[in-house]
Amino acid sequence: VNVFGEMFFSNGQNWTAICDLDADNDGKTNGVELGDPECVWERGTIPAGPATGHPGICEIETQECLSKASDICPTTTTP
Q: How far apart are CA 58 and CA 15, in angstroms?
């Protein structure tokens, strides 16, 4: 289970309790990443928009996550 799953289960599987939070600390709320920026999704319905990320994975393209990455190869130039 990733950090989002842990957050979801520790909050009684209550979406509205964690929608406005940022489980992976990438600067985007869980709701934004899963297509529900207004946190109005209900079980059995389709989110308002498309998913834009994964709330349990800090995507490397955000500055917040880039600074946390430890396994990035340094930039090199080819002779």
A: 20
Among the listed residues 29, 25, 33, the one whose alpha carbon sits nearest the alpha carbon of residue 68: 25
65 neighbors 59 (Cβ within 8 angstroms): yes
Spatial contact of 49 and 37, defined as CB atoms under 8 Å apart: yes
Residue keyed to tokens 């940022």 = 22
Q: What is the DSSP letter of 67?
A: T
**Distance between CA 46 and CA 23 in Å, rounded?**
22
Q: What is the mean pLDDT of the chain?
A: 88
pTM of the model: 0.79
How buried is 47 (Cβ within 10 angstroms: 0-12 exposed, 13-18 middle, 19+ buried)? Answer: middle
Q: How many whole angstroms separate alpha carbon 30 and alpha carbon 56?
A: 9
